[in-house]
Amino acid sequence: MDLSADFRLRDASLYEEWYKHTHPAPGLLETAVYGLCERYRASIEGALLVANPGCYATAAILGLIPALAMGIIGPDVIIDAKSGVSGAGRSLTLGTHYAEANEDVSAYSLSGHRHLPEITQELEAAALAGGHPVNQSLRITFIPHLIPMTRGILATCYADLDQDAMQRVSTTAGVRSLYEEYYADEPFVQVVDQPPHTKWTYGSNQCLVYPMVDMRTRRFLVISCLDNLVKGAAGQAIQNANRLYGIPEASGLPAVPLYP
Amino acid sequence: MDLSADFRLRDASLYEEWYKHTHPAPGLLETAVYGLCERYRASIEGALLVANPGCYATAAILGLIPALAMGIIGPDVIIDAKSGVSGAGRSLTLGTHYAEANEDVSAYSLSGHRHLPEITQELEAAALAGGHPVNQSLRITFIPHLIPMTRGILATCYADLDQDAMQRVSTTAGVRSLYEEYYADEPFVQVVDQPPHTKWTYGSNQCLVYPMVDMRTRRFLVISCLDNLVKGAAGQAIQNANRLYGIPEASGLPAVPLYP
Amino acid sequence: MDLSADFRLRDASLYEEWYKHTHPAPGLLETAVYGLCERYRASIEGALLVANPGCYATAAILGLIPALAMGIIGPDVIIDAKSGVSGAGRSLTLGTHYAEANEDVSAYSLSGHRHLPEITQELEAAALAGGHPVNQSLRITFIPHLIPMTRGILATCYADLDQDAMQRVSTTAGVRSLYEEYYADEPFVQVVDQPPHTKWTYGSNQCLVYPMVDMRTRRFLVISCLDNLVKGAAGQAIQNANRLYGIPEASGLPAVPLYP
Amino acid sequence: MDLSADFRLRDASLYEEWYKHTHPAPGLLETAVYGLCERYRASIEGALLVANPGCYATAAILGLIPALAMGIIGPDVIIDAKSGVSGAGRSLTLGTHYAEANEDVSAYSLSGHRHLPEITQELEAAALAGGHPVNQSLRITFIPHLIPMTRGILATCYADLDQDAMQRVSTTAGVRSLYEEYYADEPFVQVVDQPPHTKWTYGSNQCLVYPMVDMRTRRFLVISCLDNLVKGAAGQAIQNANRLYGIPEASGLPAVPLYP
To answer: What is the rounded distance in angstroms from the CA atom of residue D163 to the CA atom of residue D241?
Structure first.
């Protein structure tokens, strides 16, 4: 179980480009499994090395993989994400000082956030695995924002409906139905029927996903949210560890959020 | 000086579609000027009726009009906006109760926020006035979010660079330079060279605008922010009233924010 | 199990004075037990009616009863309490509107908060039961404050050390040792050795208690805190219900807080 | 104009006891004036050295000096103060990290906060100057608390009514009337007739003072609040500098708070 970013990217040179140092153990990359049970459950069981996903990456990927795996959207994707301050970790910076972060919102990492290659890798893989190779080369813009709260990530993702798919699904009810089917058996992903609130995941291992179609523009949107310290970090690691050791996947994981 | 939404939209039928009631005084629509000094300064002077813009609309329009007036972007526009709770007014709803709004973020008005037609009208007019009629018919998705702070709006706007424009401007430095020129004489719009924070506008009448190009995708972005209760409401009304009565435009308006 | 205030006060006339209406069922008062396991565990088992304590009352009483039961302090007591906004309930008032409660602190209920008679009743009873009848008539000032957070109550309580007790205990180490002994077997009260934070109880059923002596003035202080929605409300109700039905007292109650 | 604590205490040895280092310039102490216009206006005019008061000290002293100068209270004083995080300055500590300070309240500096000797010095001096030497030796407990907001200090102060004074003033109306008279000519202290909110001072140089009598216990209370970065720091320094240089005292100082 690795909680760092070292084994998330399959390609060591991509790692070196984004993390600005030589990969510490490229030989292990082949044995590493990306620790997203919703995609790689079978491979995680008994894996030698599990790379726990980033918090933003988990929210964005769980929101978008059904659309890519089912060929609903085209390759242009915008991810506008909002995170609480604990996502920045515990190290002390002026930006995380209470008096600076309180009553403030701003975008950051505009030249490229490190979770972008991870998101791209997994979304492209999902498109390919789903039989939609046209989306093997996505054009993703990912803009994270810091907002004044302790926990929670909400990702608002925008894409164009695929022209062909538009015949099949062109309404919110249509895409929601596909998503519900896709995630029907997942214990920790819920497709919801109203815009989700991060507060509804506070302290729980749930990821809430809300797909919709903007009828004026025929644009596809999906809003996903989770608690960055649970499903976005420690909770997901436990979920992976449970699976790895053959324990029931939900063992020890909080089912309900702390509300309000 | 009208602070309501009644005279913002030139088209009474559009008003009735969005506001769900008969227009109270369609006869006055012709005399009304949209109260954005940065666009209609000359007409506001001595106008019979000035319609003060909405708070989201002010942020989005000031962020995007240079790009449309100068033909930098194409017709596909996404506006992802984040607002503090005072934007919802003082009326009591469960959503603005402290225990609900605190430690939470969510999107709302997904079937269409009332500021959308106002934004569309003004952006299309700017494109036409700038000699770029191709953008007379924009395809805008506008998604507002509520975040846990009292004041402030930040709009993150995404568009594709226009193919022709890309010859002229394809870098952040390039678009920023065009924006700086466009807003050179404005007392209350500042083009900034780093991602702006709403906190930098707290209590002031400033709108901060940060245009950039995402080099990986050649996508154009502009982030704009302001204090929704000042430049987004009362401050802008004073600015308009000053202009209306021939008083210096900045009279009585706070120049510096309260920080932190 | 009653969560209202109707059966907390033994004296129906006191109830009518504070709650401004006739007591709904004075005949039941005799069968009611004040639902504080730390004081009435034995009586709660099999009780006909358990009156769940108020949130402020729980914090103040758990902080002060050891001092009164052991005769450490005199009859002059000041309780300065700070509560998050959820303590005011879910009803909509201007004071709980986000834009009003955020970035604000104020005292309220200065003419007398309804938890005062409950606190007085229980502290005087503890003094009497402990063999210190001198404190049967306390002189308590209780001032609640609203602070900008969702959950949590912290009570800072001030009293004079009893002259006689001062021979026995005149230091922080001394009073802490007495408190530790007093609460040694309690599953949900912890005597801590540094000033407690409400955040350390977030979502848990714990009450943290920190007694000390201000050496400059020989004044006794005790700071206690808890989550007003758990130990201050629903959690304590479950604790009482467990005891009432002979289930292990800690069943179903969260042991650890959600942090940060 | 000195913003540090070096010249606030008249007694160099007291300074060394509290600040744990040798006084840097004891020779200047005699020329230093404590920079509280409300007490030392005449001496500040033309002073060689003005020591700007601490933020907590300003709130507590302005709340309590009328009571001491007019002999209303006895020598036992408790000051329970609540401060926003900017009071701790801009240096980076775990305690001021957003994720730690948010949704939390705690007491700190329990072994003695550095503003205590300054408060004691000024309150005793006020008692003496007012002809009430009995209070030359006060017994003050001062407990500061950190609460989750950026700006603002609220001090809730408790004391016993002086036995003699009780003949003259034993009601809230009575003490308020005395306070109103005491501060009648002050531009930056307002005696208010309801419990003040720090939000009412946000960004302004005002200190709001609310004296009252708790009729149940005949205890005197005074609640005072201010913006720690304005009246508690830079604003008060400007007020002093104005006075020092013979400029109208309120020049350049914000009269109204930013609300909400």
So the answer is: 41
Q: What sign has the CA pseudo-torsion C105, C106, C109, C112? A: positive
Model-level pTM?
0.97
Give me the DSSP letters along chain A. Answer: -B-SSTTT-S-HHHHHHHHSS--S-GGGGGGEEE--HHHHHHHHTT-SEEEPPPHHHHHHHHHHHHHHHTT-EEEEEEEEEEE-GGGG-SS--GGGBHHHHTT--EE--TT--THHHHHHHHHHHHHHHTT-GGGGS-EEEEEEEE-SSSS-EEEEEEEEEPTTHHHH--SHHHHHHHHHHHTTT-SSEEE-SS---GGGGTTS--EEEEEEEETTTTEEEEEEEE-TTIIIIIHHHHHHHHHHTTS-TTTT---S----
Q: Do A202 and C258 touch (CB under 8 A)?
A: yes
For chain D, give the number of residues: 260
User: pLDDT by residue (tens digit) across C51-109?
Assistant: 999 999 999 999 999 999 999 999 999 999 999 999 988 889 999 999 999 999 999 99
pLDDT in tens, chain C (260 residues): 999 999 999 999 999 999 999 999 999 999 999 999 999 999 999 999 999 999 999 999 999 999 999 999 999 999 999 999 999 888 899 999 999 999 999 999 999 999 999 999 999 999 999 999 888 899 999 999 999 999 999 999 999 999 988 888 889 999 999 999 999 999 999 999 999 999 999 999 999 999 999 999 999 999 999 999 999 999 999 999 999 999 999 999 987 899 99
Dihedral-angle region of residue D131 (phi above 0 means left; psi in -120 to 50 means alpha; beta otherwise): left
Residue D62 CB-half CA count within 13 A: 32
Question: What is the identity of the amino acid at D10?
Answer: R
Please give the DSSP secondary-structure letter assigned to residue D136: G
Contacts of D93 in chain A (CB under 8 A): 92
pLDDT tens per residue, range C75-88: 999 999 999 999 98
Question: What do you get for the CA distance between the two ends of chain A, in Å?
Answer: 32
- Is B37 among the residues known to form the active site? no
Contact D202 C103 (CB under 8 A): yes
Answer whether A90 sits within 8 Å of D86, measured CB to CB: no
Q: How far is CA C18 from CA C5, C6, C27, C59, C120, in A?
A: 11, 11, 19, 20, 13
- Phi and psi (nearest 5°) for A240? -65, -45
Q: Are β-strands C139-146 and C73-83 bridged in parallel, bridged antiparallel, or unpaired? A: parallel
Those chains having 3 or more beta-carbon pairs within 8 angstroms of chain C are A, B, D
Among A102, C225, B146, CA closest to D148: A102
Cβ-Cβ contacts under 8 Å, C103 against chain D: 84, 149-152, 198-199, 202
The interface pTM score, or ipTM, of the predicted complex is 0.97
CA nearest to B79, candidates B228, B186, B225:
B225
Instruction: Judge contact between A3 and A52, C-beta under 8 A.
Output: yes
